[in-house]
Amino acid sequence: MRRSARKSGILKHISSFRRASDGSAAVEFAIVAMPFFMLLFATIEIAMVFHVSTLLDDGVRAAARRIRTGQLQTAGGASMTTFKADVCSRMVWLQAHCASHLSLDVRTYPQWASANPPNPVQANGTFSESALTFTPGGPEDIVMVRAYYRWTLFTPFLSQALSRLSGNQAVLYSTAAFRNEPYDQ
After folding, report:
1. pTM (predicted TM-score)
2. 114-152 per-position pLDDT tens digit
3. Which of 14, 48, 96, 159 could link 163 by a cystine bridge, Cβ 3.0 to 4.6 Å?
4. Nearest residue to 103 (alpha-carbon basis) of 76, 135, 80
């Protein structure tokens, strides 16, 4: 009798354990929390990437207008440094790192069909600035302005999708192609 009482007590304990739901919310949260926070941080990071890309587009568009109208060439001292400073001045909250993360390529072409610039992103995950140049051209020249901004990614699975460089860095880029206006030199 003692043995059956002990066995029935154990069965009661097991059945009451199965019916208990005191910690179920904590267990469910633990299961769902990791994917939820990964998606939340990925959404925030992709929003930041789009925002930086928009800032880069706006900065390149405005700075390239100075080349197109001849303001940069006729002002004297037109260089990659002054042009980069012009683009960075329009990227408001990124100015602290803009000069070190931004690379520019400004080239002239004799015809639209011959515009085939080299890709500075190498297959081994490095960025080669040696292929970049600064030639804003003269009146009525065809000019292509390309800007590359290196952005470090923090979300692990976003870095697999967007990373083009080693070290979890994505390359955001913007291009403006135009024919310079017939300005006076």
Report:
1. 0.80
2. 989 999 988 888 899 998 999 999 999 999 999 999 998
3. 159
4. 80
Which pair of tokens denotes residue 71?
Answer: 């303001």
- The residues with which 152 forms a beta bridge, in sequence order, are 169
Which tokens hold the place of 26? 């904590």
**Directed axis angle between helix 24-68 and helix 80-89, to 10°?**
130
